[in-house]
Amino acid sequence: MISYEEVKACLLSITHTDSETLESKRTLIENAISFVEKLTRGYTGDDRDRVILLAAARANYYITLLDSDENGITSFKAGDVSFTKGKGSAAESAKAFYESALAESADLVKSTDFVFKAV
After folding, report:
1. Separation CA 90–CA 102 (nearest Å)
2. What pTM was computed for the model?
3. What was the pLDDT predicted at 81?
4. Of 3, 16, 30, 94, which cross-links 64 as Cys (Cβ 3.0–4.6 Å)?
C-alpha cells in the first residue's frame, strides 16, 4: 500500500506546486491513490516507485482539471465568428503525462473485466 506522503513527495518533484497547496488538495490525492491501488492489485515492492508515479500523475491530472481556467481559446472575434485555439492547455499536458505513466505501468494493471468496444 502506498501512502499519501509518498505520492505528495512525488507530486512536489513533478509539479511546480508547494506543499501547502497540495495539502489543500489532499482529498483528490487520496482518491487517486485509492484508484491506482485498486487498478494495480498485487504489485511487488520492485514496482512500488512506478505505482507511486502513476498515482501522482493521476492526482496531478485531477488537480489540473479542477484548477485550470484555461479553455484553450486564445482569441475570439464576434464579427464573423472566429476563434483561435492555443497549442495546448495544462490539462492536456497533465492528461498526456498520466496516460504515459499508465502505459508504462500497463504490466501492473490487473483487469478481469470484459470490454466490448465495437463490432
Report:
1. 18
2. 0.71
3. 65
4. 94
